[in-house]
Structures are given as C-alpha cells and as structure tokens.
Amino acid sequence: MQIYWTKINKIIEETPEVRTYMLEVPEGFIWEEGSHTHFGLEGFNAGDKPNKSLVRHLSISTLPYENAIGITTRIKEQCSEFKSILRNLKVGDKVAIFKTHSNVPLKRENKNVYLLSSGVGLATFRPLVLEYFERADNVNQVHSLNIDSSKDFLFTNIFKSTPDKKFAAQFVDNRKEYYEVVKTLATDKEGIFYVVGSDDFLVQNIEVLREQGIQPEQIMLDKRENQLPNFLSSNFTV
C-alpha cells in the first residue's frame, strides 16, 4: 500500500461548518470522479498498528484538471478527535492519503441520472457534475437533489439549474419535501439513481425508490461491492 504524504495548499470555508482542504497533488497520484480516499493525520501510522481514530474515509470533491485534491467535510463545534485536529491544521501542514478508489463513476448508458444527497454528501457529486459538463456523452440529463436542514447549501455556483446543459439542481431543507421529490423523480423507471449520505439516509432512500419500482441495479451507492447486497436487500436495516 502506497501512502502519499502531501501538504495543505488552501483551506476554503464553504459554510460556517463546512471546509474544503485543497491538497497538493503528489507525483503519481491519480483519481477519477466519484473517488474516495483514506485521509490520515500525522501520527496515524507511528505505532505498530495504525491509529484508526486518526483516519477517515472521505470523498474527493475535485477533478484532476483542477490541479488539487479537494477534501470537503463538515466540522461541528462538538466533534471527534479527528475533526478537532483537522480543524486546527493550517496551510503547509501535511496529511496522508491512501487507498483511493471510485465506487460511483458517472454511468454513460443513455439514461437520465439522478443524484440524491444529504448535506456534505454533495461533495461526492461535485466531480460527477463537472465531468458531465466536460463530456455529456451517453448521458441524457442530470438532476441533483440535496437536503440540508442548515440551509447552508454547498457549491451553489456549480449546482444551479442549467437547461442548455440538461442539468437541474434542487435544494430542500426538510424530509417531507425531499421524499416527495424523490417519488416524483422515481416515475422515471429507467433512470439511474445515485445516493450519498449516512447509512440511515441510504436505507430510507432505497426503501422509497424500491417502493416506486426502481430496481437494485439502478441504485448506485458509494459502498464497496461486497457491502451492496446488504443495503440493497429488501430486509436490511441499520
């Protein structure tokens, strides 16, 4: 396993609770849209065994052409040891990235694509939307739906409806409205539905989609292949 130690080049305060850490791209490091990486803080591998409390599995919110590895995450006032350390890091500090993989690249099957996310989960979809804008081949259209009760919606410069690009972006701040929209989107029985958020959020969305007749193979989750049957089975609960 190769561990890339790299430095923080910039810290962007997206909202009062959400930051994006822009990392220098190490030589040989490659990724694609929908990628996640293991993000380690200094000292995570200092002992005989890795200190897992200093590592998080986080999405990359940028594409390679942006010449930076963007890690977008929410840091609340009351937070974990990991987030507390992360909050105090500065430009120039070093972090580790390793085990990078994409579970949710953009599918190009001449169908409509629906991106369903909660809160900062939208960071996973930012690269997919940029990839679609760069090359829309074999994608009919894209519709993003995000729920965030804080109303501090992310990336609104990118996630805005653009009819000429066949892209629609919707933000809602409550579950009732969110799931009503999901049901409407699910009237497209051929669509591809990406879902990103907490495990509870995934289960609730899958339940609604399956009730509307959407098949498991149409539902894309940012999970390892061996985890998918658990989530997509009809009797799974968190």
Automatic annotation (TrEMBL):
Cited InterPro entries: FNR_nucleotide-bd, Riboflavin_synthase-like_b-brl
Superkingdom, natural source: Bacteria
Name of the molecule in the record: Bifunctional nitric oxide dioxygenase/dihydropteridine reductase 2
Top-level taxonomy: Bacteria, Bacillati, Bacillota, Bacilli, Bacillales
